[in-house]
């Protein structure tokens, strides 16, 4: 959409009006869906490449709209952030994922970790630390088995405020992963100042690994960087066996992707785990 500026006023084109109306419509629909408990979490297993066993899962938000269609999170999360709804939704995500972790442990998956996406709007909110502490305390989720995924861009903006906040979050005992790693512009010196636990190689760099090319020098660099900084590394978006093998050869310990499992409803996760070969 284009805007024209005249005498200090913005004149919105018709298309822009449509976009804004659509955004407002979606915001109302999302608020209703959330209050009616129509949002749910899907869980995608994270795999240890050496043993091929699931060692954790990432919780991913799902919204099935009134017409039965799924609205992709890439569409509704920006609206949730823009409207502030992400604060309540994000708290619900934290609590729900922590509660599921406790159930998984009760079902015998004692080493399981739960990775939870945290929006930067949520992370910067003054109540975030308290919300996190309450979610851990109320559900009884062991912090060492909870990992918060924050995006690379979030880590790089306002480094000093971020580092301070991160230190307090880490005092709760949870782990921190940098999501979509390789897409931002983190400097090595900056990375060293952050007390991180894990880097997530963005899917774009995993997709580059194909029969034609042993691929991604970026994936290789992230794996090396992780090793040098003493961080765990997980590759996301692994769709074929070749990618899994190349990543393992490059020294990547963990992977996630359609090759192993798609994100699934909590109820299906238990069956999926039970169907995995025993240790
Ligand atoms: P993300 O955190 O990078 O999540 C990974 C996305 O890749 C997920 O998309 C997942 O379903 C998809 N994926 C996993 N394996 C494969 C694969 O092998 N191939 C392909 N093509 N895709 C794969 P999804 O669930 O649509 O989520 C999109 C984004 O929405 C997430 O990207 C994350 O940024 C955001 N998101 C999802 N749930 C939450 C949440 O609870 N809170 C916040 N703040 N953001 C969330
Ligand atoms: Ca993520
Ligand atoms: Ca990601
Ligand atoms: Ca992403």
Q: What is the CA–CA distance across the termini?
A: 55 Å
**What amount of the residues lies in strands?**
15-25%
Structural class: alpha/beta
Query: Any idea what the shape is?
Result: globular
Q: List low-confidence stretches.
A: 1-8
Tally the helices: what do you get?
A: 12
Strand order of the largest sheet: 3-4-6-7-8-9-10-11
Average pLDDT, all residues: 90
Ligand inventory:
ligand C2E, calcium ion
Element pattern in H and E: EEHEEEHHEHHEHHEHEHHEHEEH
Largest sheet: 8 strands, mixed, barrel
Q: Which percent bin holds the helix content? A: 40-55%
Domain EAL: 23-277
Protein name: EAL domain-containing protein
In short:
With 279 residues, this protein is α/β, with parallel strands linked by helices.
Relevant terms:
279 residues, alpha/beta, eight-stranded mixed β-barrel, binds calcium ion, binds ligand C2E, globular
Architecture blueprint of SSEs:
Layout: E1 3-6, E2 9-12, H1 14-35, E3 39-48, E4 53-64, E5 70-71, H2 73-83, H3 86-106, E6 113-117, H4 120-124, H5 128-139, E7 146-151, H6 152-156, H7 159-171, E8 175-181, H8 188-193, E9 198-201, H9 203-207, H10 217-229, E10 232-235, H11 241-249, E11 254-255, E12 264-265, H12 266-274
Parallel strand pairs: 4-6, 6-7, 7-8, 8-9, 9-10, 10-11
Antiparallel strand pairs: 1-2, 3-4, 3-11, 3-12, 4-5
The structure holds ligand C2E and calcium ion (3 copies).
Ligand C2E is lined by residues 44, 60-61, 72-74, 77, 93, 117-119, 179-180, 203, 236-239, 256-258, 263.
